[in-house]
Every structure is written in structure tokens, then in C-alpha cells.
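Hi there,

I know you've been waiting on this one. I reran it after we fixed the sequence typo, so this is the corrected version. Both the input and the resulting structure follow.
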Amino acid sequence: MRLGIIGVGHLAGALLTGLARAGFAPADICLSPRGHGRDLARREGYALAQDNADLVARCSHVLLCVRPADAAGAVAGLPWRADHVLMSACAGVPRTALARAADPAAIVRLMPITAAEKGASPTLVYPMRADLAPMLDAFGSTIALADEDQFEAATVYAAIYGWVQKLIAASAEWSAAQGLDPGVSRQVSAATFVAAGVMQADASRDMGDILQSLLTPGGITEAGLDHLDRAGAITAWQEACALVLHRLQGTR
């Protein structure tokens, strides 16, 4: 695979870090000259395309990481071939929009998150292809979706990822304000969310049962959840999920 990246911004930088951690050779990756592409090529040894047409001509697989509104325009008019694979990490941009602009390339949708730089991204993909497995494995775990509607619903988790960052930071700030060392506050807050995720990832146990096992009657977990429920926090969270999905679907 010769990988090219169009749109070398924050997400692409995290993906490149993940690929480097997994042993991908910089010389096998070609970057668009816009964004951070030129600087990364100079510092890290990535190949640098003259422009997007040159990048497509030189690569078999192209990863698109531009703003959704710019996605179709960024790939239109380039020298696509039937053996090309165009992988879009542009939220809410359907395959049909890219297929029209990049015919006859195969179109795949991806949704990695910046945790790919640590090899910890749960990366969504539709449709899955065997030739993408080495790259996806470098990012973290791969979650293949059965159709585009399911992919769109799962893409909401890219937003949830940011919300959880806010919860981790808010919890750490609160405990530091109570006198806990700020470094310890951050460590405990982050590790607690990781631990909760590990427990809930155990498919052999019911998700509700895991939570129920923590709700000692009259205990601190129950008291806190009761307060959150009365304040409408869980309902607001789910409403935020619905808002994001509506926005994703609205771009079709």
C-alpha cells in the first residue's frame, strides 16, 4: 500500500503518529503540500506531493481528512483509477457524494479519533476491506459497520469522545479544588474513565447489571446518580447525541 493523505491537519497528524508507532515507513506515505504537510515531510521524511493530482497519481490508497464541506471539491477532477481506494474521514459525507467526484475509485468511510496516536482509537469503517487491516490495526481497534446508516449513528461517538474529555477534565478540576494534588486528580480521573470502559466492554455481562452492581442502596454512587437524573443530565446527554446525529444526517 502506498498511502496518500489529503488534508494534513490535527486528525491526520494523530493518524501519522499512530502509523509511525506501528512501524510504517515515512517514505511509503505521501502528504498533500497544504496544511502541515510540507513541514511534516521536511521534519519526518514523508514524501511530499506537488499537489493533490500528483498525490493521487503516486498512491494506491488516499485518506481524505478535510472539512466535510470541502470533501467532494477536494477530490473532484483528480486522476482516479479503478484500482484506487479513497478513504474518507469526513464526518457526515456520504459515499455517493464522493463516488460522483472520484469515479471510478472504491469509496470507504472511516472515522478514527485522535487516540490513534496512542494506538487506542476505536476506528469505524464501512465497508471493511482486507487491504486496510494493517493501517486500521495501527490506529487501534477496528469496528466494521454493516451499512452506512449504522456508520452514521456510530459516528456520534466521535463527538462523545470530546464530551468525555470534558467530563474527565471537570472531574479532575473539581477534586483538585478540594485539595487533591492536581497531578493525582488528573491521573485518577483519567484512569477511572478507562476502568469504566474496560468493564463495560465485557460483552459477557449485561451493561445494566454492571451498573446495578455498583448501586449500593443509600451509597454514594446511587446518591450521585439520583442527583444527575433529577437534574436531567442523562436526558440532556442523549439529546446531545440526537442533535449530532441529526446534523450528520442533514448533510446528505
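Quick highlight: The chain has eleven helices and eight strands.

Best,
R. S.
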